[in-house]
From TrEMBL:
Source organism of this protein record: Chryseobacterium oryctis
Name this polypeptide is given: Uncharacterized protein
Length: 199
């Protein structure tokens, strides 16, 4: 089996003045390839990749809004969540003229194993991370993009939750409703060595 030392020795044997045959150069490259193929990636770790996605047909929430998703990553380390969410019907306003801008989408039946991969990477059942995504709407004459504050999280009930309310750590409603439109974006998650807490 090729080692780093054997590769270094073959490289050192290459003559600087250019009197190397194609056979000698090929021998060095082959030794280098054999060495790299024998090295685990990452060194000393078993890596398990996963990927769950909607096959053309989106999932729907109780109002008929649509979500396409692709979730891939490395078990116990990291996930990337790429999505297109399409809001066609907003949640109705409450009696205080406030809106519930939380949309809950089911995970496909074939993707039920997803939570086994997520539980060690993300905080479940809680909107602990808030960020901005681009949101596209049409006013009939123009297509407009604007930043929309959101928290995306996963529920133990096999749900993906989009929380567009502009308040975090409370169950309060928002004074603004969500216009008909869509967002296409991607976000990465990993589990930090510190705990997420309230401000």
């Amino acid at each position: 089996m090729a080692t780093r030392l054997s590769v270094e020795n073959k490289i050192a044997a290459i003559e600087d003045k250019g009197n190397n045959t194609a056979l000698e150069v090929r021998d060095v490259l082959t030794e280098l390839l054999n060495y790299t193929e024998n090295q685990p990636f990452p060194p000393g770790q078993d890596v398990e990749f996963f990927h769950f996605w909607t096959d053309g047909n989106p999932v729907k929430d109780k109002l008929g809004n649509l979500l396409w998703y692709s979730i891939k990553g490395i078990k116990g380390q990291w996930i990337n969540f790429t999505f297109r969410v399409e809001i066609n019907i907003s949640n109705p306003a409450s009696t205080n003229n406030m809106f519930d801008n939380v949309f809950t989408f089911p995970i496909q039946n074939k993707d039920e194993k997803l939570l086994q991969y997520l539980k060690d990477i993300v905080v479940l059942n809680s909107p602990t991370v808030r960020f901005v995504i681009p949101y596209t709407i049409s006013n009939g004459e123009q297509i407009l993009d604007y930043p929309l504050s959101t928290s995306i999280y996963f529920s133990e009930k096999n749900m993906i939750v989009f929380d567009f309310n502009n308040i975090i750590y409370t169950k309060d409603f928002s004074e603004l409703g969500i216009a008909k439109g869509y967002a296409f974006s991607s976000v990465s998650f990993h589990c930090p060595p510190f705990k997420l807490g309230k401000v």
